[in-house]
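To the wet lab folks,

You asked to see what we're planning to order before we commit. Fair enough. Below is the target structure as tokens, and below that is the sequence we designed to fit it. If anything looks off to you, flag it before the synthesis order goes out.
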């Protein structure tokens, strides 16, 4: 089997900013696997937060043996972006070789559209209010926070989109004291959930302070091995394929998390429709779906995912799976 990895860049519709910085394009790695009879593709987004770069992830992929299978892959690479792209490419190739869809190959029911969050980039309160007003028709807005000026931004978004359901992502930017001070205001403004308020590895206080609204683990949750440390601190886990290392572990994590009593969120990095397509299978029945990457792009893959009032639709076979 041949494994190829290439770097691709896709322009964003506008600058995307979170507490850690800004970007104007999505930099992704595309992995293609070919066995002579079928060809599969997968995408990943290396993330500096986890010490990943385009070069380091590409080197991991390039070092895989030509006879790798999905089962062997789980032990050859750690959870992360490299394993994700290869795992999803192998799923795609296997489905094409068998002449069936990935959901059938995995023994899952047919996927259906999912309402997805739309993320508002971190900006001045005035600009965030304007952005919220432009997207007030969307049923679920996600707000990037994690700075000392969070309350004016949150108030501005609520004013711009008075009827939208709101969730917030602090990107590890708060302390326990800040979160405790902000929580009543989050409730007052109708925020439905807060994502990763405290830094991973310094989130023990979540077990000791009141959690008046659901708290979701993002950076604190990567794969099934993360779950024991989350009990008592979080109510929900954010499953991202670039963290789990692919669809294989994402599905296993989803089942294990539900069994442990956690609600499910399925999220994404800023990537193309090819990255969102396999995540759609993990997102079925999730309490929160955040697969808006393609909505942030100025350009996307051929045969992109379709978004409408029903949400994000499952991929066509021409794209993936």
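Sequence we intend to order:
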């Amino acid at each position: 089997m041949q494994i190829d990895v290439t770097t691709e860049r896709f322009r964003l519709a506008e600058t995307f900013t979170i507490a850690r910085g800004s970007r104007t394009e999505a930099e992704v790695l595309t992995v293609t696997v070919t066995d002579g009879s079928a060809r599969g593709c997968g995408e990943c987004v290396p993330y500096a937060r986890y010490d990943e770069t385009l070069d380091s992830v590409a080197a991991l992929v390039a070092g895989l043996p030509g006879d790798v299978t999905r089962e062997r892959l789980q032990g050859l690479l750690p959870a992360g972006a490299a394993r994700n792209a290869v795992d999803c490419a192998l799923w795609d190739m296997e489905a094409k070789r068998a002449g069936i869809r990935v959901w059938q190959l995995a023994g899952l029911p047919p996927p259906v559209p999912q309402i997805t969050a739309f993320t508002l980039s971190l900006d001045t309160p005035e600009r965030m209010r304007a952005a919220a007003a432009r997207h007030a028709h969307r049923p679920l807005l996600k707000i990037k926070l994690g700075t000392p000026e969070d309350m004016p931004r949150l108030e501005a978004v609520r004013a711009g989109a008075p009827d939208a359901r709101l969730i917030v992502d602090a990107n590890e930017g708060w302390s326990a004291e800040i979160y405790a001070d902000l929580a009543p205001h989050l409730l007052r403004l109708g925020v439905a959930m807060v994502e990763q308020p405290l830094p991973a590895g310094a989130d023990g206080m979540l077990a000791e302070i009141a959690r008046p609204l659901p708290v979701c683990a993002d950076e604190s949750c990567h794969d099934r091995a993360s779950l024991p440390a989350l009990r008592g601190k979080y109510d929900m886990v954010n499953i991202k394929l670039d963290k789990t290392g692919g669809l294989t572990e994402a599905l296993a994590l989803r089942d294990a998390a539900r069994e442990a009593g956690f609600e499910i969120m399925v999220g994404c990095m800023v990537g193309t429709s090819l990255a969102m397509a396999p995540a759609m299978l993990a997102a079925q029945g999730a309490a929160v779906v955040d697969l808006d990457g393609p909505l942030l792009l100025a350009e996307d893959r051929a045969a992109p995912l379709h978004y409408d009032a029903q949400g994000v639709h499952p991929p066509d076979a021409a794209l993936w799976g």
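Structural context that might help your review: The chain has a mean pLDDT of 95. The CA atoms of residues 288 and 319 lie 24 Å apart.

Thanks,
Computational group
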